[in-house]
Design brief:
- The chain is mainly alpha-helical.
- It is globular and about 30 Å long.
- Helices cover 52% and strands 0% of the residues.
- It contains 4 helices and no strands.
- The chain has one domain: Orthogonal Bundle (Non-ribosomal Peptide Synthetase Peptidyl Carrier Protein, Chain A), CATH 1.10.1200.
- The two termini are 14 Å apart.
Length: 89
Amino acid sequence: MYPGIEQSVLALMIEHLSVDPARLRPEAQLVDQLYLDSLDLMDLLLTLNDAFDIELGVEDLVSINTVADVCRVVERHLAGSGLREGEQP
């Protein structure tokens, strides 16, 4: 696990998607509970790519349903990028 990833992802969601911080729990459903639409999800994808210097694609959106899923996908891509655990991009 990469320390700080969850906090970074939450901060990005609050800043770029205007999501209420009180509603950002790991199990929160992005569409059904946080009311993100397809444009919001694409904005999140692009924001994560820029912030973490990774290459998330539309195919990654299929596996993202919750806030915890977002963190897992980012961690998986960081692990594939060759960064060592604990390193920040």
